[in-house]
Amino acid sequence: MKPMPSEPVMSRDALAAFLDDVFPQLHHAGPGPVLVSVGPLAATMRLPYHERHLRPGGTISGPAIMALADVALYAAILANVGPVALAVTTNLSFNFMRKPEPRDLIGEARLLKLGRSLAVGEILIRSEGYDDLVCHATGTYALPPRRD
Amino acid sequence: MKPMPSEPVMSRDALAAFLDDVFPQLHHAGPGPVLVSVGPLAATMRLPYHERHLRPGGTISGPAIMALADVALYAAILANVGPVALAVTTNLSFNFMRKPEPRDLIGEARLLKLGRSLAVGEILIRSEGYDDLVCHATGTYALPPRRD
Amino acid sequence: MKPMPSEPVMSRDALAAFLDDVFPQLHHAGPGPVLVSVGPLAATMRLPYHERHLRPGGTISGPAIMALADVALYAAILANVGPVALAVTTNLSFNFMRKPEPRDLIGEARLLKLGRSLAVGEILIRSEGYDDLVCHATGTYALPPRRD
Amino acid sequence: MKPMPSEPVMSRDALAAFLDDVFPQLHHAGPGPVLVSVGPLAATMRLPYHERHLRPGGTISGPAIMALADVALYAAILANVGPVALAVTTNLSFNFMRKPEPRDLIGEARLLKLGRSLAVGEILIRSEGYDDLVCHATGTYALPPRRD
């Protein structure tokens, strides 16, 4: 009864190029989130460690984590519907669970619903090489009208 | 029956100096959020417009809005409990309502609850000079044990 | 620069009758939420105290609070756009701040955005006669297409 | 590197009896949520279909879904820390994705973090026999101090 999730419509390389082209600011003043992989209703991004993300106590800032979650969910949507630059975030909710050490963060986004006008997903964020969650986020994107 | 909200325990100037001292990264690569005022259970911050916050369509990025909300709520807490650098965000939820033009953003944070171990607040974000909300956020901070 | 919020398009009495007609289950097994008033982008509802809402410790259950928030926001929307029975909740987020005593609860809903296809609002819930918040909620409703 | 999640400390039968004892109101005016199973950092509950949960269009009400999510997460916590009746919900966030048909709902709760003073989890809600999500929820519970 489980429907096969369809294959992504953009490859990792095509989507990575699209993101770099459309969002050059992601890499302003230092390396920004990098697309690791795409999959059916999914995408994974990595935020390379950089000292501009540090906060007191040697942890990575909440806003850096939130930016990673936002773009990872956006990447999961684009990978699965194609390059609609104008998808709009309408809601993001974050539960912060552990303060991450100063190392790369991995954000795995999964779409829970990919409807015609709305996409809903969750993002799991961990420090690279660790299983404990740093943050769990959910988000909603409004999708522009499209032909299919 | 409404209890008088007590006066803030830190002045705007003292809190602004504290934030600049503890979070130098806020101003990495360009001017970051600036404390405008503090009040009883409240604080207001301004995010000066900077091109690193731009996104396609000439709007300001979601992460820049989220960073402003996070620090404005933190400022409202510090202003009212004193300089506890180790308050920890546990939850942030955002509803994005309008795409902001490329101009300064104003974030007004109000504490809805300031308990012994938990603070809950909301943040209203608008473009300077406009009444329409760009974003409404709510957040929860866990407070470290303190004597009082 | 602040636009005048338009007057509600449904009176309190008309909306109360509509709610009772469309949602008879609200009063299943005991009195349910009652519409107190409507206003520009706003509505207030009261949940009469009933022992079916009790939880251990003599407090009122979270689900009773959540149901009040949901219907109060729905009432604020209907009061201001007319009787569109098919508005659909897409997101609700709750911060619970104090355990309410066993007495009536008052839910005040305010619309933060009333767009063509989406309404966003917040709901403040208090025990009757008290100023402290029991719960703060935000919610999003998808609106069916309408002529205007 | 993944720590073994420890076994639950309460059996399904012991927890079901505890819930019925402490929350008799769950079954007020009709059958309420039933504990299906417990597991490491997890619990599953079923909400039997009952006409008091119906809404216009023959769908199940949001508040019934929210009540199921709340109690399923609570069950996952109790199953894994023991019968602490006084755990307190501090935050619940819901994304509603599909209108459920009039049939039983299944809520699967998983703990994302089980700390000393805070538990965070997610709840997936589906109509029985279907894979599509009706609702995704996240929640936070404050735990009373305990010895261990």
UniProtKB/TrEMBL annotation, chains A, B, C, D:
Keywords: Hydrolase, Membrane, Transmembrane, Transmembrane helix
Domain Thioesterase: from-to ranges: 57-129
Keyword Ubl conjugation among record annotations: no
Transmembrane regions listed in the UniProt entry: 71-94
Pfam families recorded: 4HBT
Source domain of life: Bacteria
NCBIfam families found in the cross-reference section: unchar_dom_1
Name this polypeptide is given: Thioesterase domain-containing protein
